[in-house]
């Protein structure tokens, strides 16, 4: 059974700091890995999607990497801002085209002004 | 461009009552799904559908029913509400058949409390 773990569960940093969020998964047979952002009381917003054949994706100040062999992904946020404060969720889509997502429990990020 | 729309946003039920959570998408996505989010548990898949007339169970299907009569709508029915079903429910959709490069789109959720 695929399990997804996110460390740390919570992170507090000063504004301007570069930071890394970690995600690990137990089964490397994945279709893709997605990073989502969730603001309090809101739904999930897709940030980056890395296909199984890719190693990384970038969008603005965000960079996500994928190492299938080790079962790890990282989300790098450059020059963090208070507006980046949110919960970040990692999810893997299971191989076989079922399109089911298995989620980690998230990392709650607080960026202090 | 509405995306995925969930109604209602909030609901309080008594144990034993039934209700339907609505989900509609205007992106002509074949794949739709329902997740529940509980503190300390993450999001868990309840039911999903790969197209009109086709549904299947996810990880936590007990106590829930779904049907898919149109591409746009995927309602989730609670047959006899129990306090354990107090949760935040999210509906998601995605286009299928285009490979692994398309993200799933989520609604804003329905916050359900069962007393």
Write up this protein.
- The complex is a heterodimer of chains A (113) and B (115).
- Chain A has 113 residues and is mainly beta.
- In chain A, 0% of the residues lie in helices and 59% in strands.
- Chain A has strands at residues 4-7, 10-14, 19-25, 30-38, 44-51, 56-59, 62-67, 72-77, 86-94, 101-103, 107-112.
- In chain A, 36% of the residues are buried.
- Chain B has 115 residues and is mostly beta strands.
- Chain B has no helices and 11 strands.
- In chain B, strands 2, 4, 5, 6, 9, 10 and 11 form a 7-stranded mixed sheet that branches. A 4-stranded antiparallel sheet of chain B has the order 1-3-8-7, with no helix packed on it.
- In chain B, a hairpin with a 2-residue loop joins strand 5 (42-51) and strand 6 (54-57).
- The A-B interface holds A 4, 31-32, 34, 36, 42-46, 49, 51-52, 89, 91, 93, 99-101, 103-106 and B 4, 31, 33, 35, 40-45, 48, 50, 58, 90, 92, 94, 96, 99-109.
How far the N terminus sits from the C terminus of chain A, by CA atoms, comes to 41 Å
**Proportion of strand residues of chain A:** over 45%
How many β-strand runs of chain A? 11
- Main β-sheet of chain B: number of strands, strand sense, barrel status? 7 strands, mixed
User: What is the averaged pLDDT score of chain A?
Assistant: 93
Helix content of chain A: under 10%
Interface with most residues: A-B, 23 and 28 residues
Integer average pLDDT of chain B: 92
Beta-strand percentage range of chain B: over 45%
Structural class of chain B: mainly beta
Shape of chain B: globular
Unreliable segments of chain A (pLDDT under 50, ≥5 consecutive)? Answer: none
Reading the helices and strands of chain B in chain order gives: EEEEEEEEEEE
The low-pLDDT segments of chain B are none
Shape by Cα distribution of chain A? globular
């Amino acid at each position: 059974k695929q399990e997804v773990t996110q460390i740390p569960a919570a992170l507090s940093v000063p504004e301007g700091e570069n930071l890394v969020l970690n995600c690990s998964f137990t089964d490397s047979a994945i279709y893709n890995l997605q990073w989502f952002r969730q603001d309090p009381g809101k739904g999930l917003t897709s940030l980056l999607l890395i296909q199984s054949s890719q190693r990384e994706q970038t969008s603005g100040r965000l960079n996500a990497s994928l190492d299938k062999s080790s079962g790890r992904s990282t989300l790098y946020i450059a020059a963090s801002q208070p507006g980046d404060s949110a919960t970040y969720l990692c999810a893997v889509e299971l191989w076989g085209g079922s399109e089911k997502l298995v989620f980690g429990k998230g990392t709650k990020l607080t960026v202090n002004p | 461009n509405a995306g995925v729309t969930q109604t209602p946003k909030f609901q309080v039920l008594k144990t034993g009552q039934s209700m339907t959570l609505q989900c509609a998408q205007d992106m002509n996505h074949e794949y739709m799904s329902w997740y529940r989010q509980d503190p300390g548990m993450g999001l868990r898949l309840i039911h999903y559908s790969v197209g009109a007339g086709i549904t299947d169970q996810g990880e936590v299907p007990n106590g829930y029913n779904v049907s898919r009569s149109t591409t746009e709508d995927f309602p989730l029915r609670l047959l006899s509400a129990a306090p354990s079903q107090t949760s935040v429910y999210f509906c998601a959709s995605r286009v299928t058949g285009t490979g692994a490069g398309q993200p799933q789109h989520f609604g804003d959720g329905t916050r359900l409390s069962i007393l």
